[in-house]
Design a protein that fits this description.
209 residues, alpha/beta, Rossmann fold, two-stranded parallel sheet, 7 helices, 24% strand
Length: 209
């Protein structure tokens, strides 16, 4: 999928995986190509230049919140999967404790990860879809995808100081209030219904994200 800064893709290439990237940004494609990715330039909302049944795994990391029609893209990706293929999706949680307090104070919905960029404003904010966990699950079910595993990341740099809360405390709080305290949702899904969906609880967001 979209190459972005290709941090994760580069790590996968180093581990010996063949990685295929699709992006509409020439600069992102050029950097990805230099790092060993097979790249194609395309607007993923209108075209997907690969054959059906091509992928073992598709990464959709921080993409769905940018799209006009995320359901259409996911339906296309289902067709691009091998029968036993999987899709890994990551989306920011715009409704964690930090953002809820900002909204309550009338400070807008811009996610904390984007507020570090000085030029981010309401009129150029690239996120146009704001998913709750339940709504993402409904979207996946609508295109025939089943959730096999959910990963919750305790909100990074949040209101609860890490130095005062050891990892086991943060994980316990996260299990109690995942929609409030998870800064990101990461979902592993496939067209195969699992016996039981698993959950992973992380005391902080990994550096890759």
């Amino acid at each position: 999928m979209a190459c972005g800064d290709d941090r994760i893709s580069r790590a996968l290439v180093k581990k010996g995986h063949q990685v295929f990237g699709v992006d509409n940004n020439p600069q992102a494609l050029s950097a990805a190509y230099r790092h060993g990715l097979i790249c194609r330039q395309a607007d993923i909302e209108s075209a997907m230049p690969v054959a059906d049944g091509f992928f073992d795994v598709i990464l959709v990391l921080d993409i769905l919140e940018h799209l006009k029609d995320p359901k259409l893209l996911l339906a296309r990706l289902v067709n691009k999967l091998k029968p036993d293929g999987q899709i890994i999706i990551a989306i920011p949680n715009h409704f964690d404790l930090r953002n809820r307090l900002r909204i309550l104070r009338g400070q807008g919905i811009i996610h904390w990860a984007h507020r570090r960029f000085s030029d981010t404003r309401a009129w150029n904010y690239p996120h146009i879809r704001f998913f709750r966990q339940k709504e993402l699950a409904e979207l996946l079910a609508g295109v025939g995808l089943f959730i096999n595993c959910r990963q919750y990341n305790f909100m990074a740099g949040g209101l609860i100081p890490r130095r005062l809360t050891p990892p086991f405390v943060r994980r316990a709080l996260l299990k109690l209030w995942p929609d409030l305290l998870s800064g990101k949702f990461v979902i592993l899904c496939s067209c195969q219904r699992p016996v039981a969906a698993k959950s992973i609880w992380l005391s902080q967001t990994p550096k890759e994200f």
